[in-house]
Amino acid sequence: MSATPAVLHRYLAALDAGSVDDVLACFAPTGEVASPLYGTMPAAEFYPGLFADSSASSTELRRVYVDPADDREVALAFHYAWVLGDGTPAPFDVVDLVTLTDDRERIARLTICYDTAPLRSSWQRVTGGGAEAG
């Protein structure tokens, strides 16, 4: 596979738009997300919570890596210009490890990887996220 799967472009556009419905349309019904701040949960629970804690966001795609042995496994490296619900900027560079469904049309699992240290205290203040969140 040489091209980035279309679902991943739709996913980033939906993040930029802040559209829960459009993001969830990118996931399989049983899709899940593993996040360093929110933990592991179904995508249908994660994204409403994320967008409720956000006032805006935008993405800048930097790289796409496709596993040559299994093109269902993809890594997206991008800059996420996240703004918390109170207007506090919380930008970070991130790699999303994505497992696509067998037909490559939806996301089965997404693992978010980034350093939370620079923004954790702001996130906890705005969201009430516990010190044990991680």
Radius of gyration: 14 Å
Strand order of the largest sheet: 2-1-6-5-4-3
**Count of helical segments?**
4
- Spell the H/E element sequence: HHEEHEEEEH
Q: Mind summarizing the main beta sheet?
A: 6 strands, mixed
Helix content, binned percent: 25-40%
Report on this model:
The protein is α+β, with helices and mostly antiparallel strands and 134 residues long. 26% of the residues lie in helices and 40% in strands. It has four helices and six strands, in the order ααββαββββα. It has helices at 6-17, 20-24, 43-52, 120-127; strands spanning 27-35, 39-42, 54-66, 73-84, 92-100, 107-113. The chain has a six-stranded mixed β-sheet. The chain is globular, with a radius of gyration of 14 Å. The protein starts with 5 loop residues before the first helix and ends in a 7-residue tail after the last helix. This is SnoaL-like domain-containing protein. Residues 9-104 form the SnoaL-like domain.
Give me some keywords for this one.
134 residues; globular; 6-stranded mixed β-sheet; alpha+beta
Strand and helix map with partners:
Blueprint (H helix, E strand, L loop, with lengths): L5 H12 L2 H5 L2 E9 L3 E4 H10 L1 E13 L6 E12 L7 E9 L6 E7 L6 H8 L7
Parallel strand pairs: 1-6
Antiparallel strand pairs: 1-2, 3-4, 4-5, 5-6
Could you give a short description of this structure?
It holds the Pfam family SnoaL_2. With 134 residues, this protein is α+β, with helices and mostly antiparallel strands. 26% of the residues lie in helices and 40% in strands.
